[in-house]
Write a structure and sequence with these properties.
11 helices; alpha/beta; 7-stranded mixed β-sheet; 7 strands; globular; about 290 residues; Rossmann fold; about 40% helix
Length: about 290
């Protein structure tokens, strides 16, 4: 029997741990080979004063943190696309010619081609990326989401055109979902502290209300509470990005907010917007022909 193969297509070192750090070890325990695309090196992420000077560049620091997280999450392979981190919308860094945002805006076919090449190497049955808003509107998240969705669609069409020739095609595409309760809790907590939920984050450039408005329907929920400890260890590796935040959430609140990880099923499209799965590999043919 073939092992299931799953590809996560994300933008920065830390996205994998903060977003899916409890789900990944569950898949590993289920016998799934998990692959990761990390599209940028995290070059322009904010770094606390106490961590500055330990590495020659921010990118080196961020990549060392990703390597630490890999020890806990046990990916089969990590594919680095090595684009430059773009920063948030309208920033000077988003106009850098080597940034993912710039490359997506000016050379989208090239970005899609690089994602497709990873698809062909890893040959995942299931693919996960951000939702269409990129989670919280980060341009790199949106760029890799668009490139991943297009790569998935193109490979499906190519395989359909060559039906019967054993051409590889991915079988399912999902967007990782933020829990609505978590986002509502962040908005309430911000207001109780006298903060503006439309201007959150270190640089006050994250609009949490927009994040809530762009949440998409959930069709799959998988139980992950058993893996909170792994999630915490992997996330703590990303100290420069506030990696200890999960341990600062009480265990009862963690269980209430995060005990199940939700996903939006994009392909095959659901008949109704309701939860109808507890397994991303439901109805997957593990023995389908691969090129």
């Amino acid at each position: 029997m073939e092992r299931g193969r799953l590809l996560i297509s994300y933008a920065h070192p830390d996205d994998e741990s903060f977003g899916l750090g409890a789900a990944i070890p569950k898949w590993i325990d289920d016998g799934i080979d998990v692959y990761l695309i990390c599209a940028t090196n995290g070059d322009v992420g904010a770094v606390p004063e106490e961590l500055r000077g330990k590495y020659a560049t921010t990118a080196e620091l961020r990549l060392s943190e990703l390597e630490c997280a890999r020890q806990h999450l046990k990916f089969k392979e990590v594919f680095m696309l090595e684009y430059r981190d773009s920063g948030m919308p309208g920033s000077e860094t988003s106009r850098h010619p080597e940034s993912l945002c710039y490359q997506w805006e000016h050379h989208p076919a090239g970005v899609v081609a690089r994602v497709k090449e990873v698809f062909k190497r890893a040959q995942p049955h299931v693919v996960i990326t951000f939702n269409r808003y990129g989670g919280y509107g980060h341009p790199d998240h949106i760029a890799i989401q668009r490139a991943t969705a297009q790569a998935f669609e193109q490979l499906r069409k190519q395989a359909d055109a060559g039906a019967g020739t054993g051409v590889y095609q991915p079988q399912k595409l999902y967007y990782a979902a933020f829990p609505k309760a978590t986002i509502r809790w962040r908005i309430l907590r911000a207001r109780l502290k006298g903060q503006n939920p439309r201007r959150m984050g270190i640089n006050q450039d994250v609009d949490v209300i927009k994040t809530l408005e762009h949440i998409e329907p959930v069709h799959t929920r998988i139980p992950v509470a058993k893996y909170f400890d792994v999630w915490e260890r992997a996330s703590s590796c990303h100290a420069s990005q506030g990696g200890g935040r999960i341990s600062r959430t009480s265990r009862w609140l963690r269980r209430f907010l995060y005990s199940k990880q939700g996903f939006t099923r994009v392909y095959p499209a659901p008949e109704r917007d309701q939860v109808d799965e507890d397994d991303l590999f439901a109805n997957i043919d593990l023995n389908a022909q691969q090129s």
